[in-house]
Design brief:
Length: 400
C-alpha cells in the first residue's frame, strides 16, 4: 500500500483511470487494466490486461505501482513476472512490518556490502566465478556459444596472481604488469584478447552493482599502437632531431621540433609558418592556426631547448609545402632513417610523457590541448618517463 495520504490519493487516482469495466457474456464483473500511455511506456507485455474481478485487477495494479515507484521505468521485467512480483511485494511487506522507511532498493544498496565476502566486496576469483556462470546462462538462452565461454575461461590465468585480492582495491598497474608477464612470449593479439575479457568481466561487475569501477579501461591494448604508448628515449629523440637537421639542409627540422619538442600536433605543425612563432619575447611562444580544436589554437609556451632547435632551422620557410601523401608517411620514414623503431603517435606522446614529470600534469594538459586531466593523460603520459630522463629531455640542445 502507498505509505501516506498523498501517495494513496495518487494511487487511487491513477487506478480509477486505468481499471475499467470489461464485462463479457460470462462475467459481468470482469475488469481491464489499460496500461497504455507514457507512464507505462516501458512495460513489456500486453498494454491491456483482463482480470475476473475488480479486486484482482486492483491487487495486480498495486504490485505494478509499487515496482514503478521504486524503480521507475526500469520495472518492466518485474512488472511482467508473477514470481518476481510476489517476491517484491513480500519483501516490501517485511520492510513495512520492521518499521523501516525508504525503498527496497535503498535497503538492498545499504545492506549488500555488509553481506559480501569479508564485508568488503568481491575478490577477483569470486567475481570470475559469477561472471562465468552468467556466460553459461547466455549459452542456455542461445545468445552465446560454448566455445566462446571456453575462451572466457582463459582469463583464469590472472587468478594465481590476483585471485584473492578484493577487486575494488586492485591497482591496475599491477594487473598490467601481470598481463605483460603472462603474454611475454605471446602475440599482441593474445594479450589484447585477455584484456578484452577482463574489461568484459569488470563491466559485468559494474552492471550487477558488485563493484564500482572498471579499472581495466586504464590498461591499453598492445596491438593498437596505444598500449606501448611509444615514448622514445632521450638518445632516440636526439637521433631523430639530428636526422631532421641533416636531411635536405634541415628543411624538416621545424616540423619535427614543433611536434617532438613542443607537443604540437603534427597535423597542425606542418601548416605553421614563422609568423606563428615569437622567439624574441622574454617567454617565447608558438600559436598553431589549424589545431584540432579551439583549445589547440592558443599560444603555446616554448621551452628553452626547443627555441634553440628552432633557431637553427632554415630561415626561408619554417615548414616546406608537400602533399598530404608525403606528410602521411613522413614521421615513419624519418624515424626509420634515424635508425629508430617507429611507433605510432610517439612524437607527441614523447613530449607529453617527459613534460608530465618536468612541468606537471596540469600544465601538460593545457599544452596538449586537453580539456581536463583524464585517464588518457594519466595512463598514456605520466607512467612512461622518469624524472631524470625528463630533465635530460629538456636539456637536449643542438650540437655544434
Amino acid at each position: 500500500m502507498p505509505e501516506n495520504k498523498r501517495k494513496q490519493s495518487e494511487f487511487e487516482f491513477v487506478l480509477s483511470k486505468v481499471c475499467k469495466p470489461a464485462p463479457d457474456e460470462n462475467n459481468s464483473n470482469r475488469r481491464c487494466l489499460d496500461l497504455r500511455g507514457k507512464r507505462f511506456s516501458n512495460l513489456s507485455g500486453p498494454s491491456r490486461r483482463f482480470y475476473p474481478t475488480k479486486a484482482e485487477a486492483e491487487e495486480e495494479f498495486r504490485k505494478i505501482w509499487l515496482s514503478l515507484r521504486d524503480f521507475g521505468r526500469k520495472a518492466s521485467k518485474v512488472a511482467t513476472s508473477e514470481d518476481d512480483l510476489n517476491d517484491y511485494v513480500a519483501a516490501r511487506e517485511m520492510l513495512r512490518k520492521a518499521g523501516m522507511e525508504g525503498s527496497l532498493a535503498d535497503f538492498v544498496r545499504e545492506t549488500l556490502p555488509k553481506v559480501q565476502p569479508g564485508g568488503e566486496g568481491f575478490s577477483l576469483s569470486k567475481l570470475f566465478d559469477r561472471w562465468i556462470e552468467a556466460q553459461k546462462q547466455k549459452v542456455k538462452t542461445q545468445s552465446k556459444n560454448e566455445e566462446s565461454v571456453g575462451d572466457d575461461r582463459r582469463l583464469a590465468a590472472l587468478l594465481p596472481f590476483h585471485g584473492e585480492e578484493i577487486v575494488e582495491r586492485i591497482d591496475f598497474r599491477s594487473v598490467r604488469e601481470t598481463l605483460n608477464t603472462i603474454c611475454s612470449d605471446k602475440s599482441n593479439a593474445t594479450h589484447d584478447n585477455l584484456l578484452t575479457k577482463l574489461r568484459g568481466m569488470l563491466n559485468y561487475g559494474v552492471k550487477e552493482e558488485l563493484i564500482q569501477v572498471n579499472w581495466a579501461d586504464k590498461i591499453d591494448k598492445r596491438g593498437s599502437g596505444a598500449g606501448d604508448v611509444g615514448v622514445y628515449s632521450v638518445e632516440e629523440v636526439r637521433r631523430i632531431v639530428e636526422r631532421a637537421r641533416t636531411k635536405e639542409d634541415g628543411k624538416f627540422l621545424g616540423v619535427v621540433s614543433l611536434t617532438l619538442l613542443c607537443g604540437i600536433r603534427f597535423s597542425a605543425a606542418r601548416k605553421m609558418t614563422w609568423k606563428d612563432l615569437d622567439l624574441e619575447r622574454e617567454d617565447p611562444k608558438a600559436k598553431p592556426r589549424f589545431g584540432k580544436n579551439e583549445r589547440s589554437r592558443f599560444w603555446v609556451p616554448l621551452e628553452p631547448n626547443a627555441v634553440e632547435w628552432l633557431k637553427v632551422c632554415p630561415t626561408e620557410r619554417l615548414v616546406p609545402q608537400y602533399s598530404e601523401s608525403h606528410w602521411r608517411h613522413f614521421p615513419r620514414k624519418l624515424t626509420e632513417e634515424a635508425e629508430v623503431e617507429f611507433r605510432k603517435n610517439a612524437w607527441r606522446h614523447t613530449f607529453a610523457s617527459y613534460a608530465a614529470k618536468h612541468l606537471g600534469m596540469d600544465e601538460t594538459r593545457r599544452r596538449m590541448g586537453h580539456k581536463r586531466t583524464s585517464v588518457t593523460l594519466e595512463n598514456h603520459y605520466e607512467e612512461y618517463a622518469t624524472r631524470e630522463a625528463s630533465e635530460a629531455f629538456f636539456q637536449l640542445t643542438p650540437k655544434d
